[in-house]
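Changelog entry: the Transposable element P transposase-like RNase H domain-containing protein record was regenerated in this release. Current contents:
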Amino acid sequence: SRVEERKREGKETLCALMMDEVSIRKHVEYAAGKFHGYVDLGCGIVDDSLPPAKDALVLMVVAIDDSWKIPVAYFIIDGLIGEERANIIKECLLRLHAIGAR
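Regenerated structure tokens:
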């Protein structure tokens, strides 16, 4: 990875975490034995007890001292409260720090 390359060079990788919420069309379908279109926060629960999704929350890391950007996570949502959004950001930051990104 870019972070590991810079570590070998003795350099630190400085990044910014960007987040954007994009509207998507509400549409649920059943294909290949699975439902698609319901809220999915990555916890493995996807069934008709969840509301249909209307947004996609995308997190992207942008290098400050280099020229790259990488989408690192996305969640199919129907709105989030502040605490849920904060938990997602904290988890992403923890994982970035674990690989050496700052």
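The chain has two helices and five strands.
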